[in-house]
Amino acid sequence: MRAELAGYARQVLGSGQVVADRSWGHGVAGVLEVRDADGVVWFVKGHGDPERYRRELAAYRRWVPGLGGRAPRLRAYDDERLALVLSAVPGEAGLSYVTDPDVQREAGVLLRRLHGTETLPPWTDLVAEKLDELDRLSVRASRLLEPRELDFVRAELRNLSGVAAPARVPCHLDYSPRNWLVAGADRQRAGRRVHVIDFEWAGPEVWVNDLNRLYFGPWRDRPDLADAFLAGYGRTLDDADRAVLHACGALTAVFIVVWAHGRGEPGFAGAWRQNLRRLMDGWR
């Protein structure tokens, strides 16, 4: 994939020196950092999964422009190669600032901006669609999880039938510090800005489901980080939000267990299975 992406970069940019291979270890996509003849840095991303390519392309065309300079800009795309050429955004890896309340607050501001890029109708079929998703996962999940774990997820989803149909918004769906770049980190905290990358999971969802990577991750033992993020977002979690977050978070755990095992990442799968068991034990 590297040679093909480098060739596509030269085709789009006129020239393209490969600076580094920025691909993730799971091998689902290839990412090259390249520099054009003027010294401008670009990223060329090639997908192995057509669905994830389509989701990311749709997000860059439909919602990401509303974020201005806080996310990459789409320069070109190729449906046959499943490839995108994207501008660079400034900043250091967000994982270095995961426990910084000011960065969490800025990330909340940015997510609210993404969620406001389009108004979508309420999700009247939320429960039915989530149960269908669980059913599609169940064949593979039943080899990795106990029946009581899957029964718990199904019961939690069914309990959402008593929740009013929530609104859907444009969601990132992998919104976590590993997809943040923090700029201005060498200056005062007030000057920091969060940028977001990697929209390959993006799609319409309930707003609170864009929080699960944080809620089940860095927020678990640091409620002050959740408070800072939600202050930036401009909203708090009510009982209905928490019900959706917990039920859909349990479903996300099933998905990640299946996905991670299929890609040889048992540690990642184990961490999310532990999250599921915490929910079963009454963790809120």
How would you characterize the overall build of this protein?
The structure is a single chain. This protein is an alpha+beta fold and 284 residues long. Helix content is 43%, strand content 16%. The protein has 9 helices and 10 strands. It has helices spanning 2-13, 50-62, 101-115, 126-141, 147-158, 212-215, 223-233, 239-262, 266-280, and strands at 17-21, 29-35, 41-47, 74-78, 83-87, 92-93, 169-171, 180-183, 193-196, 203-205. The strands form 3 sheets. It has a 5-stranded antiparallel beta sheet, with helices on both faces. A 3-stranded antiparallel beta sheet has the order 6-8-9. The model has no long low-confidence stretch (mean pLDDT 94).
Short description:
The protein is α+β, with helices and mostly antiparallel strands and 284 residues long. The chain contains nine helices and ten strands. It is globular.
Q: Identify low-pLDDT runs.
A: none
Structural class of the secondary structure composition? alpha+beta
Number of helices: 9
Residue share in helix? 40-55%
The major β-sheet equals: 5 strands, antiparallel
Order of SSEs, N→C?
HEEEHEEEHHHEEEEHHHH
Radius of gyration: 19 Å
Taking strands numbered 1, 2, ... along the chain, how are they ordered across the largest sheet? 1-2-3-5-4
Q: Tell me, what's the shape?
A: globular
